[in-house]
Description:
3-stranded antiparallel beta sheet; mainly alpha
Amino acid sequence: MNNTAKLNINGQIHELPIVEGSEHEKAIDISSLRNKTGYITLDDGYGNTGSCRSEITFIDGEKGILRYRGIPIEELAEKSTFVEVAHLLIMGKLPNQEELKRFSDLLTKNETIHEDMKFHFEGFPSHAHPMAILSSMINATSCFYPEILSSERQEDFVVQAARLLSQVRTIAAFAYRKSRGLPAIYPKPSYKYTANFLHMMFSNPYQEFDAEPEVIKALDLIFLLHADHEQNCSTATVRMVASSKANLFASAAAGVCALWGPLHGGANQAVLEMLADIHRSGDDGSKFIAAAKDKKSGKRLMGFGHRVYKNYDPRAKIIKKRCDQLLAKLKRVDPLLDIAKKLEEAAINDPYFVERKLYPNVDFYSGIIMRAIGIPIEMFTVIFAIGRMPGWIANYREVHENLETRIYRPRQIYTGLTQRPYVSVKERV
Ligand code: SDX
């Protein structure tokens, strides 16, 4: 195979190196393009552009493959836990027993937020969206731990990472309690990560929430499946902010903001709203699918389609199966799950979706599980953010520890007005 690509510009041939990844993905390295040719590339939405080399997560969109540090998502979903996977992503390896205990103890030690942060919660209106609270409070956390701002001290990185991973859960639960006018419930050191989150969400001063093991495992699986996903919009945002040497909490807060959009992490909330609208209208889904195919309607089949997966999202398969199991275990029937299955059946046989390779993604079924657990719809994207935190932390670390990292600063093609004179206000029309 040639290890260079030849580019012919006005008859002049320019050679650019070809880079090949460990899974044999190939790229043309254009880092010398502008110096050699004066040209830049243009790629709206970065669909054809690699922003970095990374060792964290591998996706093959055509084959529907997802691996965290080389381990297939199907094996991790069946055999691992969210905290183990967080260690795998952040530290680069599955922890042995001693490492797992140390990491788990660090999460426990850092699970409460600084007591003065509670005053910030009082400032939010009760209808504030929890994603707004989450991004604000993650950023605010750095004010209470000044050592976070000295990002050069890498030796305490793991403490910062554990503090962020542990406290994102506490902040999320406090935001929910505040929105319902309920007293904040503090974490319990005897509870593990996901059980503690459910405790902080649903216990009351007069009664502990006794989560069923299946509910804890279902939510832990949701966190695990969302833990990383290579250079998605929010992770790319975290890397962008990290490249300026901003601290971990500022970078994660930016990731929360990017995740909030309905085309990204906000889709799980949008899917449930879509299913509920279809259910309310008495539509069997066919009217909605027709609208989703009609560009003029402005509607999309939320939870369907993906920039990278041109096959079934492997996470959607896993979640769909767990959905059936959990609802059966809880002896729950959810009409929205039936509608979701009907929509999927119709769409995967409809030429519009087949031609565009639009399949269910991770968001299509995740909301059904969260609804079965009793998590309110406005918290769905917050759950996604908690799950994605290890991936953001791992990508932040990869940027910070790569001494060759340059600040992310894309170019552009200017299409605005060419040079023209200033006109004084008296002469303006
Ligand atoms: C996540 O990147 C990641 O890894 C993200 C994520 C992660 O873990 O971080 O996997 C999580 O964000 C999953 C995606 C959640 N979003 C949704 O479910 C929202 C609905 N889906 C889309 O809006 C869309 O599919 C995207 C945003 C996911 C992907 O958008 P692209 O790659 O820019 O594709 P596109 O908008 O250019 O669509 C290509 C064609 C268009 O039609 P044509 O112009 O070719 O005629 O497909 C159509 C689109 O109109 N299309 C859809 C559709 N998604 C794409 N038509 C109807 N319904 C849809 N859902």
